[in-house]
Amino acid sequence: MTEMWACEAVVGILESEGVDTVFGCPGAAILPLYAALRGSGIEHLIVRHEEGATHMADGWARTNGNVGVAFGTSGPAGTNMITGLYTAQADSIPIICVTGQAPTTKLHQEAFQAVDIVEIAKPVTKWAVQAKEAAQLPWLFREAFRIARSGRPGPVLIDLPLDVQRQRIEWDPEIDAPLAVNPVRPHQPRVERALDMLLAAQRPLLLAGGGVIGAEATEVLREVAELLNLPVQATLMGKGAFPEDHPLYAGMTGVQTTQRYGNASFLESDLVLAVGARFGDRHTGALDVYKGQRQFIQVDVEPTQLGKVFGPDLGVVSDARLFLESLRDAARRRTEMPERAGWVDRVTELKQTLVRREDYDQVPIKPARVFAEINAAFEPDTYFVTAIGLYQIWSGMFQKAYLPRRYQVCGQAGPLGWEIPAAIGVKKAKPEAEVVGVVGDYSFQFLVEELAVAAQYDVPFVLIMLNNTYLGLIRQAELEFEMNYEVDIHYDEHGTDNVRLMEAYGCSGRRVREPGEIADALAWARKQAEATSRPVLVEIMVEREANSARGPAINAVIEPEPVP
To answer: Pfam families attached here (predicted)?
Structure first.
């Protein structure tokens, strides 16, 4: 066997697992790992906040499907990573966070920056573990990658005491390899039962969730839809799983990120085949309306997801791609396919009639006009990231997505500030791609310091800000309590000058007040980002009272109010 420093084995394993970029911040308790990283082929980006590192790893993983990696030292570095771990867990994103730790002999003595990060991280990870022996390190990291990828993907935290990192171990990389990930295959009788239910239905829908994208199942999804003449809807996390210009695309159902024709089509359906979708509350709204008299087939790789929100008529435990392949093959063996031209025509009619207007010319600018310009300006293979707030809801309503992994959103955890670090991660995963972050004026400020990372490492992308200087979504929520409290973030007439803030980080920006200026500003930003290799901001001043669909879920599901 070959003797080496334990951390050299760790870095070698990272390389063999396909990690070419790590995001993090060094500190005293993790310097042995950084010393090993120094001589490797892995690029490291030094972040300005450890939460930013986790979101960069998250964006990297969402883009290429591999496991993203973030490093941090002991104490606050680990606690700063908790939001990113929670975000990855909520959206089923495989990342590994590695933290340094005080020496094992000091952990019981309240040593400097010694915190039990493993116990803190357990509720928001698939696995959190502290290395006790140096000889464990290679195996802990192999298992971490296996767990992060297996079943429902998700995050892992590994805590490395300083004395464990400093030891030498026996490890031969020549005879080492990643651990096998066993696919979750469907039970064939349940596939056949699902097909029987689909063939018997008069107005079925296929609901594609984020699990379809994570399982690389978008091509077979289209094959199944076309074979069975089956209209397809997407959840917010599934946006991009099915091309929105496809004749069978039936929109999105929900109480916020939704299309009116999607809600209407859903309410007229009699069976829903949900693949890789967890029935989140922003999608379902009031469950009595959502369930109605229709049947549900729920397919999920994680058994405990079945029946978590409501009991389906049929549950299938399976990887999304393997289920859809089995369903396709089973359908091809059947001699007769149902004739559903009338149902497909009805979905098409709803799609053509229940649409929201986008061609506004008013000042202040209406959000719908912004997304009409975005749809016109960028190619289908552009990578978009967006976080949480009214702008995310408007994006879900109006923005088009045609390809998997191109529309990325922190769907469940919804951390403000996610967009800038996520965009950095996306661009590092796909350096040749065009990357665009759609942000709000409030979220922009949460991790704005990560602009310095993009400037330092020449990571260009375009930021499109919808600025209403209003905290509109919070104000809407406060209506229930008949108050308008602590939602003013101004300290002068305008509040933060976001263009000047971009310039302070060595980047550039432009402010837009007229709808006719949007197209030129977006064209300028794209050229500027390419020319400078830095982020570029287009700040668009939108109307303050442009509220999204909200209120009693039962009403929103039936017919959400259009954006004014």
So the answer is: TPP_enzyme_C, TPP_enzyme_M, TPP_enzyme_N
